[in-house]
Amino acid sequence: MVPVQRGFTLIELIAVMVIVGVMSVTLFSKLGSINSTNAQAGRDDLIAALFFAQQTAMARSGVQLVVTASSVSVTENLPPVTALLGYPLNFSSGVSATPITFSYDKLGRTTAGIISLTASGGSATVTVEASGYAH
C-alpha cells in the first residue's frame, strides 16, 4: 500500500499568495485616505453648524458662527455672550480651518465667505453665500 501524501501544490500556494496580496493592497489603499475622510467629516460638521446658526438666527437675534483653526462655535451675542448647546465643536485630529466669523441677521443672511479645511492628504472647501446658504 502506497502512503497518500497530503499538502498543497505550488500552484495553490501561489494562488493564495496572489489573493492575499490583492486584498492587502485594497485594504491599505483605503486606509491611506483616512486623512481626506477627516477633512470631509470636518466639512460636514461645518455645514451642519452653518445651517444650525442660520436657523437659530431666524428664531432669535444676535447669532454668530465663529470658525477657529481647530473648532467651530455658534454663539448668541445677547448679553451675556453664550455658546449654544453642543458648541464649540472641535474638528477631527489633524484638521485645520481658515478662521472666519459670520454674523446672521433675523432673516438668516450673513456676509459671503469661503472656509478651507485641510488635513494631510486631503482638503475640503465650504462656500457661504450672502443669503446664508452653505455648500
Q: What does it look like?
A:
This protein has 135 residues and is α+β, with helices and mostly antiparallel strands. It has one domain (34-128). It has two helices and eight strands. It has helices spanning 10-31, 34-59, and strands spanning 63-67, 71-76, 82-83, 89-90, 96-97, 100-104, 113-119, 122-128. Strands 1, 2, 3, 4 and 6 form a five-stranded antiparallel sheet that branches. Strand 2 (71-76) and strand 3 (82-83) form a beta hairpin. The longest helix is centred in the middle third of the chain and has 26 residues, at 34-59. The protein is rod-shaped and about 95 Å long. The model has no long low-confidence stretch (mean pLDDT 86).
